[in-house]
Write a structure and sequence with these properties.
- There is one protein chain.
- This protein is 45% helix and 13% strand.
- It contains 16 helices and 13 strands.
- Helix 2 links the parallel strand 1 and strand 2.
- Helix 15 runs antiparallel to helix 16.
- The longest helix has 23 residues.
- It is globular, with a radius of gyration of 23 Å.
Length: 403
Amino acid sequence: MKTLTMKLAMAATASFLAMSAGAWAGEVVWWTPNFNEARARELVEKFQAANPDVTVKLEITTTDGLPQRILTSLQSGAAPDVIDVQHGWVNGYAQNNLVLPVDDVLTDREDYIPAALEYNTWDGKLWGIPYRIETHAVIINKGDYTAAGLDPDNPPTTWTAFKDAAKKLTTNGKSGFAITGGGEVGNTIFRSLPFMWMLGGGIISDDGKQVLVNSPESIEAVTFYTDFLKEGISPTSTLENDGTANRRLFIAETVSMYQSGQFDIQSIRKENPNIDIGVIPVPHPDDGKTAAILGGWSFVIPSDAKNPDDAKKLLGFLAESENQAVLTDTFPARISAMEAERFNDPILQVFKEMLPFGRPVPAHPNWVQISQAYFDGIQRILLGDEDVKTAMDGAAEEIEGLL
């Protein structure tokens, strides 16, 4: 009797485990940002046609609040199987054992931009598959330049000349240059941190051991950035504005210049074809060189993914050169994918020229919280609650505890 009972119990357990496995086998849950949705759905359809035994369930995310949402899901054990994340977040996930290594997925490293792979490498392993790279430039309204007596074919290159041009463009209710002060933290990091690098400052050192955010060089750069609002050059809505809001203001022709990536060009052309769009490099100090964050997105597989095997199968498909060229709306991380016709548009030339000046953000397990502390300081400055030094000293104190 005891033997029969044990056999029945073992059979029931086996049946339960089989049913549990069956609930996940063949389904991959993929979180992808809303700006990728249409292209992601196209690729999912293509993947499922080639892999009829796998169903991909797309869940669309938004960038506002995304770092915290992803971090919470990774820490809770209730994460999806594949997540699109910004390159700068990957190292922190890896160092906290929140994602799986994916070296077995990437079989052609030589076809990738080296810096994109470096972003995702820690402890000798690869923790994410990069598919998109980008740097910012400054998008300008060439018609506004001409109306203000400026030459759009000979744009300002230094901080001094750029601010002078922005002041001339600030007229008749139009803002000369829009900075960001709201929305997802990365919007302001990408636009302001390079100015700090240009002077030898930063938020933290590249090795993650030293706080730089309140150094004299960083304070000078933050002052340059935030003064655009203080001096009435950036819109009064700056505190609420992210990159998307600035693009809309540019399309509405109430802003003459703003920093962004090539991903905005198509929207501008579609929504206001009357704007004569120009692109110029990000200005540099009078005696220095420009800089930019080499940004972009990667795929990661959470440590608690329910179906890591099929997730890797999907990642291998998305990493194929042809598919990577389809998914990204900036530049692909694969060199061969850059040969697609859509990347030959002349207006992309300046964005390409900015790529060699791109740098990764420091690889630190608490980078998300560190960048939040800096962003909070920027908001206090823009609100007028604190001067630059006080705000950056406060950020430095908070960041010191995170190192």
